[in-house]
């Protein structure tokens, strides 16, 4: 037992001390412990939140949600712009791009937007808290919790070790998708007068699935080419995105095929 504990301790020390020296001083990056605490608190809220809201009236939070979703639209626009413009200015390859660990202007600019993307995933945990406060418990599915909880760890590792390189591709695509996703949520808050124009919800899921397929092809391609980007990260991204494709396909089927078929029968 002692040797196992020592091995774990040695691995932890190695993990925290062998990150990107540029990003280590940044908020929540140096050690995984803050993210583990956030993750644990998040799961605690998911488990206990519905019970705490039992017998209480749901909060409307209309103004809060409008500000929150609009702010995330703005943040997503900023991140997409930074990912796109920085990659173009730096002459990034959209097929294979190693990480620029230098303190060059563009290297640091890309690292900074990677950090903002990671931090946005921490902010987005509020999606679940708002569902709990509004008693929208059906929205807190396994897919929802799995996606939100795992993304903070994935992008902590991304910023800790590979802040740039071809990881920018994932952040750029996801930021683009989130512009429309949080715009949809912001408009939906405005009530029935606007909701009747939000017929394009189905296409948001298709856009998300398209993004995941693109990421799978991108990371999968680099597993079979001589690309100076860590294969371990490509394998992790490829494996993770396959799970998302499966879960989102199931969501799409359940929402737009099975439920509609049941409504027709009724």
Care to describe what's here?
The protein has one domain. Helix content is 73%, strand content 0%. The chain is built from ten helices and no strands. The longest helix is centred in the last third of the chain and has 35 residues, at 231-265. The model has no long low-confidence stretch (mean pLDDT 94).
**SS-based class:** mainly alpha
Task: Indicate the percent of residues in helices.
Answer: over 70%
Q: Judging from the principal axes of the Cα atoms, what is the shape?
A: globular
Number of strands: 0
Largest sheet: none
Note the total helix count.
Answer: 10
- What amount of the residues lies in strands? under 5%
Unreliable spans are none
N- and C-termini, Cα separation: 60 Å
How many distinct domains? 1
What is the CA-atom radius of gyration, in angstroms?
20 Å
- Taken in chain order, the helices and strands follow as HHHHHHHHHH
Mean pLDDT: 94
Write the layout of secondary structure elements.
Blueprint: H1 2-17, H2 33-53, H3 62-89, H4 105-123, H5 126-133, H6 142-161, H7 167-188, H8 192-195, H9 201-222, H10 231-265
